Amino acid sequence: MIQIYHGDGKGKTTAAVGLAVRAVGSGLPVLFVQFLKDDTSGEIAMLQRLGVETLHAPQMYGFVSRMCEEELAKTRAYFADMLSQVEMWIAKQKKQHDNVRKENTVEAVVVLDEVLHAVKYGLLDESTLMEVLASNQAQIEFVLSGRNPSDKLLALADYVTEMKKEKHPYEQGISARKGIEF
Predict the structure, then answer these.
(1) Would you state the torsion angle of the CA atoms of residues 5, 119, 38, 94, taken in this order, to the nearest 10 degrees?
(2) Could you give the CA distance from residue 122 to residue 65 in angstroms, rounded to a whole number?
(3) In this predicted model, which residue has the larger pLDDT, 133 or 170?
(4) Residue 100: its pLDDT value, please?
(5) In this predicted structure, what is the pLDDT of residue 99?
């Protein structure tokens, strides 16, 4: 199935990490892919210790609005390559499960953290993402996070959870804190 965690509130990545931990704890292979983030978030080191495979762009340039055309082009290329790597990882999982496939059983989990932002800002082609999601839905549980999912992605999803901000310390000038927001 496809799950979407979206909204302007805190907790989208945290929920995705929780599901990844649950899945790996149940013996499922998990791939945790981060778009628009590098590998410095606190959850990455722990997920790797638990045996979760992680993937992120080799370089990030900061906020999309501050990227020059060259940086945008490189980021698009990174993200397209990351999605290709996701497809290769899924193919490997499917091959390993060919002889043991059971109906209504999840074979692996793929978390695409902040992918909704990548699509919204034109850094990842939505139709290519949708093809990957649709062609692998029977065996792979997908978790997509970020803000402002398109109507197409919402329609494709099986679960949709919105995190709504009611109050946040950022509004009082308090910046992100290590171990809490990243």
Answers:
(1) 70
(2) 12
(3) 133
(4) 61
(5) 60
